[in-house]
Design a protein that fits this description.
Elements lengths: L27 H5 L6 H17 L4 H5 L3 E3 L6 E3 L5 E3 L1 H5 L3 H16 L2 H7 L7 H18 L21 H10 L12 H4 L17 H22 L6 H11 L5 H17 L3 E7 L12 E4 L5 E6 L6 H17 L6 E6 L3 E7 L15 H9 L5 E6 L15 E6 L13 E4 L2 H5 L3
Parallel strand pairs: 1-3, 6-7, 6-9, 9-10, 10-11
Antiparallel strand pairs: 2-3, 4-5, 7-8
Helix pairs in contact: 2-5, 5-7, 7-8, 10-11, 12-13
Amino acid sequence: MSPAVPAAGRLSVVGSAAPAAGRPHKAGLAGRAAKRFSPKADRILRAARLWITLNRPYYSRALFACPMAPTDDLPTMAIDERWRIYVNSDFVESLTVEQTAAVLIHELNHGLRSHADRARNLDVGPGAAQVWNAAADCEINDDLVEDELEVEGGVLPETFGLYDHDTAEQYYREMIRNAVVVEVDLRCGSGCSGHSADGEIDPGELGGADEVERELLRRIVAAAVVEHERGQGCGSVPDGLRRWADDTLTPRVDWRRVLASAVRRGVHLRAGAADYSWQRPSRRDLPGDPVIRPGMTRPVPDVAVVVDTSGSMGDDDLARALAEIRAILTRAVPGDALRVYSTDSDVAAVDQVFNTRQINLTGGGGTDMRVGIAAAAESKPAVIVVITDGFTPWPDTRPMGVPVTIAALTNDYGLHRVPEWMQAIDLSADAVTGYF
């Protein structure tokens, strides 16, 4: 059931203004909230929340659980770690109802996507909070643009020469690596950066959502997103939001186990095959029989690993690639059945390896895993595993004679770009930590 819109009147606190049953409500906000929203801002905020309820209903439960407070300390809007939204009346008065709705959705997404916790996981200090804020905004805003919502004055990945639909972590790493200077004044609050911003209310005031309530709201919104797309059809919600919902509702799996299982399955398919060979005589041959018959052989299954050694693969990516090759050697196939193709825009080296010390990863140029896959397919391996950061074109069709092809991505950016005929596995650090 859709939440009720508050009764008409001027807002000083919007959302869960009334204290929950049994929970003491501190009066510390009373004096602070003497400055109320302006009448025009009040009307726009109410209309914006109604617009969201009617047009993006999956956000409504979480939005109506967020207290709102007027502020002059911040130029636009912000959200803190308890999901209390701070609103500058002058800013809202400059927007339309739909623009206001877009900004409310933007701030709410900082909370839904756990940006504060993810900032702490990356050890983002106060000095880098602006860069993280920009990275988190990019993760949200490209979805809002896809959802045909106007992002008033917001930054987009293209603002910094980055790709759409990446994670905040990847944007942050790229911006730090490229020494990007964020010239826009971004202050989305502690709900984004994990660091308190000017004007934020004491944790004991105005209530807000505690950790358990926030996690429950995330799951409620994620379920509503999935249900909405099921009812409206594929494409009715942005890709990034749908992936967030899927990750929220579906527990992370042990990706090493998945990778080893996929490799073993391909090896099993090939190991069960048999072929004729003239190198060994048939057991059915009789002495004096003029007809020479071929014998049956079982080829030793092999695995080809195509490693992306292009310039976009950092040291962490290459280290993860070596770790996965070691796992394949020890957990999936015999060590004498593994070939490694170092590939950038061409195949730089091919090594037959028994352990990772024998691997010589060379390259550093452009990226095209198609040439590595084509080279690996020539030997008709049981399995081709491509370890890459995903910044590559993919073949249009499955390699002939290769039963299993696996794309193991060190960066979850490219998961949705992997062709349907390939099995995609997330090897990113984010998959390990399960940040969603």
